[in-house]
Amino acid sequence: MTKYDYLIVGSGLFGAVFAHLARKAGKRCLVIDKRSHLGGNIYCEEQHGINVHKYGAHIFHTSNKEVWDFVNSLVPFNRYTNCPVAMYEGKLYNLPFNMNTFYQMWGVTTPEQATAKIEEQRAEVLSAMKEQGINAPRNLEEQALCLVGRDIYEKLIKGYTEKQWGRPCTELPAFIIKRLPVRLIFDNNYFNDAYQGIPIGGYNKITEKLLEGIECRVNEDFFARREYWESLADKVVFTGKIDEYYGYRYGKLQYRTVSFVEEVHQVPNYQGNAVVNYTEREVPYTRIIEHKHFESFGDAVYANPVTVISKEYSTEWTEGSEPFYPVNDAANTELADRYRALAAAETNVIFGGRLAEYRYYDMAPVIEQVLNHPEVKGW
Ligand SMILES: Cc1cc2nc3c(=O)[nH]c(=O)nc-3n(C[C@H](O)[C@H](O)[C@H](O)COP(=O)(O)OP(=O)(O)OC[C@H]3O[C@@H](n4cnc5c(N)ncnc54)[C@H](O)[C@@H]3O)c2cc1C
Fold first, then answer.
1. Which domains does the chain have, with CATH numbers?
2. Quick one: which H or E segment has residue 50?
3. Active site includes 183?
4. Distance in Å, CA 250 to ligand 1 centroid
5. Active-site option among 141, 162, 290, 312
6. Which end of the chain, N or C, is less surrounded by CB atoms within 10 Å?
């Protein structure tokens, strides 16, 4: 008899939620992670009394009540509402595009005036394209111009998108932007979901709760001692990279990554908001995150005289850097499909989470996936 029912490779949300539910069902689990800490990408590091999101700002949002109740049963959530602002040439604009943005951009004060202005801007673009014999947008720039007109595109979309993708918008495909929702109401809440927030005390509290009473080992790479790890359990739950699991036999999948440069400032309030996007091409970073605003509100911000910020830079992924976002082009999709076909044929290995599926998932869908997983439903 093996020592464990499940060897869980990766202590991110997929692995940790799986382990938690398995333990509740009386299963014996071992969780290993190659990083020096548990929690995967939701991990935070405490600095100067502030929880710093080490793998990028994480804001929990969902409309799924079961998922919301589940996470709140672990740790209660605060009232954080994501209202990012964009900085362009020293002026601030609210996001997502809404009546506040249109007022800041054009001084319009009613939905009717805002609609008229957007339509005027779109009409200019469409007639210019028609004159040049262009019937449909040929690239991302033309697509965005057709959807929202020149002012919003040039001030809030162009530079940011070019930094994110490392290429001019004229060289990016139109399909990347399918819609650009405009809100004709004064509403800066980024998400449309019914629930959002940050766990009170930070994300590590969730990881601690999920993995309570479960044997966990950090600094352990599954591939360093694969046979040994596999011999310990009846089944493996694998949340690492799917191509690595198969020894890259069809080739390597590509990713996009972000690098973070942290700064500590001896001021209580650096930018007055958790998220500020920098939409000019000339500013090298895409966003500045001020971490304390995720968990302190109102005057409480001033209780701590220090603040920690992270500047985010979009960078090409190279071997050894963090694999953050899958690349959704034809070559990578086809390659991932070939690996997924191998994974589907496995009987004793469960593949789950963003790396093992080579799909971008927010936190809530990952949890939902585990809650509804056939293995979990079978207990
Ligand atoms: C920059 C960024 C920002 C994000 N912001 C948000 C947000 O605001 N809101 C939101 O809902 N979601 C956000 N997400 C998504 C969120 O991070 C994921 O949904 C979540 O982390 C998925 O959990 P996971 O378990 O699949 O993967 P991970 O958290 O990556 O966990 C996988 C774990 O497996 C370990 N591992 C991998 N290979 C091995 C191996 N060979 N041996 C041992 N261990 C291994 C890794 O070290 C890692 O700890 C963001 C993601 C990124 C990249």
1. 4-80+195-253+327-377 (3.40.50.720), 96-176 (no CATH)
2. strand 50-53
3. yes
4. 24
5. 312
6. N
